[in-house]
Amino acid sequence: MEEQKQENQSEQMSLSDLKPVEGVSVDLKQYDKKEVEIEGAEIIQVKSDYTKCKKQWVLKVQSIVLEKLEREDEDDIEFRASELFNLIQDKDGKLEGYPEAKGSNLQQFMTDIGAKSPEDIVGKKTLIKAYEKNDKTFLKFRY
Questions:
Q1: CA distances for 114 relative to 14, 31, 42, 65, 123, angstroms
Q2: For the chain, how are helix, strand and coil distributed in percent, rounded to 5?
Q3: Is 34 exposed, middle or buried, given 0-12, 13-18 or 19+ CB atoms closer than 10 A?
Q4: For the chain, what are the domain ranges?
Q5: Which of helix, strand or coil describes residue 8?
Q6: Rounded to the nearest 5 degrees, what angle is found at the Cα of 37, between the Cα atoms of 33 and 41?
Q7: Reduced to 3 states, what is the DSSP secondary structure of residue 89?
Q8: What's the pTM?
């Protein structure tokens, strides 16, 4: 018991000995309005409160890695722009396709980058938008 007390005391330091240390952080706002290449597009399912099936098929589009924080003994943290575009599914949740309406977000995005279909998205270049939500900065695409 006495050894544990001494160990805790030796780990403590006085407030006057405490010095400021610059932490590792990334300012994602620096990427606002920057052009970036799209690295990936894949079809996935995500939870949804807006569909009967509670799962929504989406097209996940992501840019190349813009910044990486390397961490010892843990996975690195990668920062990239990404966005989910809703796909069309039937009432049973079966994927039917992508929206063709010119007003849909996916069609607006594809028009902006010059893609004729979702399979043409990868490799295109587009601008990034940095936005704040709940005191955090996120990156998505401008279109």
A1: 61, 22, 18, 22, 11
A2: 20, 35, 45
A3: middle
A4: 28-141
A5: helix
A6: 115
A7: strand
A8: 0.78
What are residue 78's DSSP bridge partners?
68
Note the maximum CA span of the chain.
74
Distances (CA, A) of 105 to 59, 102, 142: 11, 8, 11
Neighbours of 83 (CB within 10 A): 19
Q: Which helix (H) or strand (E) holds 113?
A: helix 105-113
**pLDDT 10s digits, 8-67:** 555 788 888 888 877 677 899 999 999 999 999 999 999 988 777 789 999 999 999 999
Beta-carbon contacts of 47 under 8 Å, excluding residues fewer than 6 positions away, are: 54, 55, 56
